Amino acid sequence: MSDDAVPRPALDPEHFVSLPRPLRVEVVDETTSTNALVVARAKAGEPEGLVIVTEHQTAGRGRLDRVWEAPRGASLTFSILLRPDVAPASWTWIPLLTGYALQAALADRVPEVTLKWPNDVMVGEHKLAGILVERVETDLGPAAVIGIGLNVNQTRDELPTEIATSLRIELEETFDRNPLLAQVLGSFRALLPLLDQPEVLRAAYTDVCATVGRTVDVHLPGGETVRGEVLDLDQYGALVLSTGDGTFTAHAGDVVHVRAAE
Ligand code: BTN
C-alpha cells in the first residue's frame, strides 16, 4: 500500500466518552501546542482531568526547549491537566509515572518497549514517545500539565530524526489512534494512585527502565556531562550513578546510553 493510501481515521470524541473520571477529552483540529492550551485552561480555573488532543500542532514543545514535530493526523499529541494532591517531593514522580503508564499501555503490542530515564518511551535505542511536564501556578494551586507525543502512523520520512521510531515502523501496520488514546488514558488513570506510593512506583518503573544498569552519559542542564554506571533511582526518582570517583545523583538531564553493564 502506498503511503497516500494508508487509512488514518480522524480523532473522534465519541471514543472517549466512557473514560474513568475525572478524564474528559476535547479534540481540537489544530493548535500551537496542546500544553500551551491546557496551561491557559488551568490558569482559567479548569478542574483536573481535562485532556486536549489535536490533529496538528504548529508549535509543539519538547523537553529542554526543543521543538516537537509531527505531520497532521499521524500521531497522538495530547496534554492532561492534573492538580496533584501529593507531597511536593512526589511531583518529581509525575513524568516518570506518565512514562510508566505509556509503557504499560503499549507493552502488549510492543513487548520490547522500555523507558529511558527520565521519561522517553523507547524501542531499543529508538524513541517512540516523549513527555513534557510543565508546572503552572494557578489560583487553585499548582497544576501539572502533562504533554505526550506518541509516534503512531509516521513513516520513516515523516519522523524528524534518525533516532525516532513509530508504532507503524515497529509493527508494520497502521493504527486507529482513537482506541489507542483511550487505552493510554485508561492506563494513566489506573496507575495514578501510585503517586501516593513512591516506593511501589520506583520498583515498577525500575523494572521497565533500560537506563538502570547501563553506562550512560548524563548531559546536565548546566552543560556539564557526567559518565557513570546507573546504580538505581533514589526516593525522588533521580538517577544515582557510580562515576568511579564515587556516586553522583542526577535530578534532570538528557541521558545517552553508552553501553550495557558488564
Ligand atoms: C520530549 O522532548 O521528548 C517531549 C515531547 C513532548 C511533546 C508533546 S506533544 C503534546 C504536548 N504538547 C506540546 O507542545 N508538547 C507535548
| Order of strands across the main sheet | 1-2-3-7-6-5-4
Q: What series of H and E elements makes up the topology?
A: EHEEHEEEEHHHEEEEE
Number of helices: 5
- For the record, what is the CATH homologous superfamily label of the largest domain? Bira Bifunctional Protein, Domain 2
User: What fraction of residues sit in β-strands?
Assistant: 25-35%
Shape designation: globular
Task: Assign the CATH topology of the largest domain.
Answer: BirA Bifunctional Protein, domain 2
Strand elements, count = 12
Mean pLDDT: 94
Helix content: 10-25%
First CA to last CA: what distance? 44 Å
Number of domains: 2
Parts with pLDDT < 50 across at least 5 consecutive residues: none
* Biggest pleated-sheet summary: 7 strands, mixed
CATH hierarchy: architecture of the largest domain: 2-Layer Sandwich
Ligand inventory: biotin
Q: Kindly provide the name of the CATH class of the largest domain.
A: Alpha Beta
